[in-house]
Amino acid sequence: MKHGFVKVAAVTPKIKVADPAYNAQAVCEKLKFACEKGAKIIVFPELCLTGYTCNDLFLQELLLEEAKKALFTVASCTRGQDALVFVGLPLEQDGRLYNVAAAIQNGEILGLIPKTNIPAYAEFYEGRHFAEGNAQVVSCQLGEKEVPFGTSLLFRCMNLKGLIVGCEICEDLWVANPPSTNHALMGATVIVNLSASNETVGKDEYRELLVKSASARLLSGYIYTSAGEGESTQDLVFGGHNLIAENGTILSQAKKFVGECVFGDLDVHRINMERRRMGTFGKKPELSYVVVPFELNHCETILERTFGCAPFVPSDEEKRSRRCEEILSIQSYGLKKRYEHTGLKKAVLGISGGLDSTLALLVTVRTFDMLGLDRKGIIAVTMPCFGTTDRTYDNACRLSGILGVTLEEIDIREAVEVHFRDIKQSTDNHDVTYENGQARERTQILMDIANRENGLVIGTGDMSELALGWATYNGDHMSMYGVNAGVPKTLVRHLVQYYADNCGNAELTQVLADVLDTPVSPELLPPVEGHIAQKTEDLVGPYELHDFFLYYMLRCGFEPSKVYRVAKLAFKGIYEDEVILGWLKTFYRRFFSQQFKRSCLPDGPKVGSVALSPRGDLRMPSDACATAWMAQLEQLK
Q1: pLDDT of residue 527
Q2: Angle at the Cα of 494 (from 493 to 500), degrees rounded to 5?
Q3: Helix 390-403 and helix 355-371: axis angle, to 10°?
Q4: Given 28, 48, 140, 170, which residue is catalytic?
Q5: Type and span of the H or E element at 393
Q6: Taking the alpha carbons of 298, 303, 309, 312 in that order, is the dihedral positive or negative?
Q7: What's the DSSP call for residue 603?
Q8: CA-to-CA dists, residue 257 to 30, 200, 242, 530, angstroms
Q9: Helix, strand or coil for residue 608?
Q10: Nearest to residue 127, comparing CAs of 96, 173, 168?
Q11: Is 325 a catalytic residue?
Q12: In what order do the strands lie in the sheet with 153-157?
C-alpha cells in the first residue's frame, strides 16, 4: 500500500445453484487464493452464495437460512486474512427480501448494502422477489450482532489515506443516476460492483464502456465482478466478465467463459490528486451517510501494473498515427488562427536540420497550405556558426528546397566574434556565454527579418526543453508563436516520423529519415573531426527519462520516490537504478530552478494533458524552493 497502491481482485467462483454450503466453500477457496496474491479488496458476484438464477427458490425459507449460514462461513474464512471482502446473497429484513452485498473484514461483517435498482424488463424479473434497497442506513440483526444496512454506507481504511470504498450492485451501474455518483461525491475513491450480467452478442463491449466511463466520470477505481460458470443456463448464459478500471482506463479484465480471477493495482493517491486538480468534481450532496472504519496491514504492494516508457506516445500503432494527425492539426490550426487575426502572410523561422525546427517548418507549411498562402512566404533561415556540421546544414537546405520555402543563409560567425570582442569574451572560452551568445544572435536576426518582411517568428523549442530550461533566455526561448511548446521531445520524433511515412514524397522522406537519425544537439560547440561534439542527452540526460519524469510528476502528482519507483519498473533492463536516480535529481533541480524561463513564454497551443504555459496549466512561482523534493530524493537508494 506504499505510495497509495492497493491490489484488488474481481473473483468469479464456479458455483452450484441453490447450494449455499457448496458455494461458501468455493468462495473461501478463491478468497484464500486472492489473499495469497496480495489482494486487499476482493469482490465476488451478485447473489453468489445462492446463485443469481434461483428464481422462485428465493422465496424458500430454507434457502435464505442456508445463505446466512454460508455468509458466516465466509466471514469466518476472512479471519486472519488481510482483505476487505464483498460477497452477494439474498437477505430478509422486516418481511422484505433484498439483494444484498455483505462487506466483511477479518471475521466481522461490517455492513450490508442492498441493491437500489431492481430490474423487471427483458430477461430480468427481480422485482418478483426483491425489494428496492433503502438509502437510509438502519440496523439489521444478523446472528448475535447488529449490522448497518443501507445503500448510504462507505468503508474507510484508517491506515491508507484516501481509501474509501462504496458499493453498488449490477443494475445500479446501468441506470441514469447510479448510487456510485453519491458514493463518490461523499468521498468514495473505489467503487465495487457485484453483478450477474448475462452474455448477449455485443453486451461485453457496452459493459466495458460503462465501467470505463463510470471510473472516468467519478475519478475513481471501479471493480466489477460478474457471475459465471455454475449459474443455470435454462434461459441465460453468464460469462464471468470481470473488469477493473481506474480513471477511465481498464487495468485488467477477464476473458469471458474462463472463470478468471483478475487483479489490478489501483493508485488511490493518484485518484485523490485528480480530484484535487479538477475543481469541478462536485460538492457533497446533503445526504446522511454512515462511514464504517477498517484497517489493513500496511505493506508495499508488489506491482503487476505496467508503466510504459513513453507515457506521451501511444504504444498502439494505429492509435499513435491518429494522435500524430490530431496534434499536427492542433498545431496548424493554432498558427492558422494567429495568421487570420494578424492578417500577415510571412513566416520566419530558424532551420537547423534538427528535429524541433524540422517539425516547426512542417507545421508552418501545413498552415500556409490551409490558408492558401504561397509557401515562398515561409522564410527558413539557416545560420551556421562555430558548431554547425555539414550534415545538419545540408539537411536544412535540402528540406527547405523540397518543401518549396524560401531559404536564407546568414553566417553568424563574424557577428558573434564582433559581439564577443565588445563584451571581452574569448572565442577560446567555450563557456555558457560562448553558447548563449550564438543563440541570442540567431534570435535577433529572426526577429529583425520578421520586421523586415512583416511576418511572425515561429518558435521551434519543445516542451521537454522548457521543462528542463534547456533554452537560452531571450534566445531560442523567445518567438512570436511557439508551435512546439506543448509537444514533448519523445513525441516530436514520432510526429516527424509520421510525416515522413505519409508525405508521399520519397525525397522528403529520405531527408526526414536522416534528421531523425541525427543526434539531438544545439550545435554551439565546434565539431570534432566534422561530427557533432555536443550531444544534449549526454549533458542533461535522456529525453525519454525526462519526459517520463515530467508526466508522472506534473500530470499524476507523484512524489519523487514514487516517480523513481515506477521509473525503475518502466526502464528495467534499459537503465541502471542509479542512472535513473541521478537523472531524476537533475530533472527536479532544473525544473524548479528554470521556472523563470517558463513564466514569460510566448503563446503556443496546448496539445495534451501536460502543458507548461504560465497562462494555463502551470501557475508556478519562479522562485519556488525544491528543498523538500530534493531531500526525499537524497533518501533514496
Answers
A1: 80
A2: 95
A3: 10
A4: 170
A5: helix 390-403
A6: negative
A7: P
A8: 17, 13, 11, 64
A9: coil
A10: 96
A11: no
A12: 249-253, 243-246, 221-226, 190-195, 164-169, 153-157, 290-294
- The whole-number pLDDT of residue 123 equals 86
- CB contact at 8 A, 63 and 113: no
Given a contact cutoff of 8 angstroms between Cβ atoms, the answer to whether 44 and 242 are in contact is no
Asked if residue 412 lies in contact with residue 442, where contact means CB atoms within 8 angstroms, the answer is yes
Catalytic residue among 7, 30, 46, 212: 46
131 has a pLDDT exceeding 80? yes
Contact 492/546 with Cβ under 8 angstroms? no
Beta bridge partners of 86: 43, 103
Instruction: Indicate the SS3 state at residue 147.
Output: strand
CATH node for 317-540:
3.40.50.620
Catalytic: 286?
A: no
54: left (phi over 0), alpha (psi -120 to 50) or beta: alpha
Q: List pLDDT tens digits, range 538-557.
A: 888 999 999 999 999 999 99
Decide if 190 contacts 39 (C-beta within 8 A).
no
C-alpha cell of residue 513: 529519415
Cβ atoms of 126 and 120 within 8 Å: the answer is yes
- Provide CB contacts within 8 A for 509, sequence distance 6+: 500, 501, 503
46 is catalytic: yes
Q: What is the pLDDT of residues 40-65, one digit of tens each?
A: 999 999 999 999 999 999 999 999 99
User: Of 533 and 195, which is predicted with more confidence?
Assistant: 195
CA distance 257 to 463: 46
Place of cell 514569460: 600
C-alpha cell at 211: 465501467
The pair phi, psi for residue 426, each rounded to 5°, is -75, 140
Size (the chain), residues? 637
Euclidean distance between CA atoms 23 and 71, whole angstroms: 10
Give pLDDT tens digits for 398-444: 999 999 999 999 999 999 999 999 999 999 999 999 999 999 999 99
**Model's pTM, two decimal places?**
0.92
Q: Which CATH class is domain 2-294?
A: alpha beta
Cα torsion 171, 174, 180, 182: sign: negative
Q: Which class for 68: exposed (0-12), middle (13-18), buried (19 or more C-beta within 10 A)? A: middle
DSSP H/E element including 139: strand 138-142
Residue type (1 letter), 488: P
Backbone angles phi, psi at 166, to 5 degrees: -115, 160
Minimum mean pLDDT range among 101-110, 177-186, 279-288: 279-288
Given the residues 7, 30, 40, 115, select the one marked as catalytic.
115
> Is the distance from CB of 67 to CB of 89 less than 8 angstroms?
yes
Going across the sheet that includes 406-409, the strands are: 406-409, 378-382, 347-350, 456-459, 481-482
User: Alpha-carbon distance 152 to 145, whole Å?
Assistant: 20
Domain boundaries, the chain: 2-294, 317-540
- The total of other beta-carbon atoms located within 10 Å of residue 77's CB is 20
Q: How far apart are CA 13 and CA 492, in angstroms?
A: 48
State residue 143's pLDDT score: 84
Alpha-carbon span 30 to 300, nearest angstrom: 22
Helix (H) or strand (E) holding 322: helix 317-342
Give the distance between the most distant pair of CA atoms in the chain: 100
The contacts found for 54-59 with CB under 8 angstroms, 24 or more apart, are 54/17, 54/18, 54/90, 55/129, 56/128, 56/129, 57/18, 58/90, 58/97, 58/129, 58/130, 59/97, 59/129
Nearest to 91 by CA among 63, 119, 117, 55: 63
Contact 103, 88 (CB under 8 A): no
258: exposed, middle or buried (C-beta count within 10 Å: 0-12, 13-18, 19+)? middle
